[in-house]
């Protein structure tokens, strides 16, 4: 399949680029997309939550009342969970939420999102360009030219385009990432995907391996 290449002003350059059917033309698999997004979000969790249980609360272990004759149950410590200030029963403990997900599943998820975006006309290929110095205004003008102002955009570039990254980082709903750092969550969590012309070949190589 072929797509038209546009420049940073939103105009067609007259060039077309052939995209791999294996990456941009497959039948989307929504389940693996869900799995990969779940895997990404789970890995972001710190897992440092903790509450004190009965053995960890600093309170007296003196018996609160006599063992017999009170007409009620025996109580041996103020650390018991039934008392205010006592330990929590089965409270949360530090843990790692990450889980294993096969590489092939991750690749299929990313190909599914790219294929769906292309079919919905939410993926554009942009001719390579760069900024001499970081300038937010220049990146805003780029988004305005493509009628993407105020929309969620993900710009996938090839290599270290530091000036592009610095120009876009203060703009809400906008993200610039290197082609080697693309993940399914970022692809899903955007309205429009912009692919730099030079990023197509490395992206196809990564997703075909």
TrEMBL record:
GO function terms (MF aspect): rRNA binding; structural constituent of ribosome
UniProt GO BP: translation
UniProt entry tagged with the keyword Transmembrane: no
Keywords: Ribonucleoprotein, Ribosomal protein, RNA-binding, rRNA-binding
SUPFAM superfamilies: Ribosomal protein L4
Pfam families in alphabetical order: Ribosomal_L4 (PF00573)
Transmembrane segments: none
Gene Ontology cellular component list: ribonucleoprotein complex; ribosome
Alphabetized Gene3D superfamilies for the sequence: 3.40.1370.10
InterPro entries: Ribosomal_uL4, Ribosomal_uL4-like, Ribosomal_uL4_dom_sf
Role: Forms part of the polypeptide exit tunnel.
Family assignment from sequence similarity: Belongs to the universal ribosomal protein uL4 family.
Quaternary state and interactors: Part of the 50S ribosomal subunit.
Name assigned to this protein: Large ribosomal subunit protein uL4
Organism: Leadbetterella byssophila (strain DSM 17132 / JCM 16389 / KACC 11308 / NBRC 106382 / 4M15)
């Amino acid at each position: 399949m072929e797509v038209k290449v546009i420049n940073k002003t939103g105009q067609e350059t007259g060039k077309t680029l052939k995209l791999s059917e294996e990456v941009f033309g497959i039948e989307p698999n929504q389940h693996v997309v869900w799995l990969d997004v779940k895997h990404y979000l789970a890995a972001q969790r710190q897992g440092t939550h903790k509450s004190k249980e009965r053995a960890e609360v600093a309170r007296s272990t003196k018996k609160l009342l006599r063992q017999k004759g009170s007409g009620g149950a025996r109580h041996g410590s103020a650390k018991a969970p039934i008392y205010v200030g006592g330990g929590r029963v089965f409270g949360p403990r530090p843990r790692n939420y990450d889980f294993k997900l096969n590489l092939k599943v991750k690749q299929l998820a990313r190909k599914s999102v790219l294929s769906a975006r292309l079919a919905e006309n939410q993926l554009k290929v942009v001719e390579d360009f760069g900024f001499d110095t970081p300038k937010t205004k220049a990146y805003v003008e780029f988004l305005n030219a493509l009628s993407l102002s105020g929309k969620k955009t993900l710009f996938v570039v090839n290599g270290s385009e530091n000036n592009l990254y610095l120009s876009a980082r203060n703009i809400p709903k906008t993200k610039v990432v290197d082609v080697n750092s693309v993940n399914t969550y970022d692809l899903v969590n955007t309205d429009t995907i912009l692919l730099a012309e030079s990023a197509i070949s490395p992206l196809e190589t990564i997703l075909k391996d």
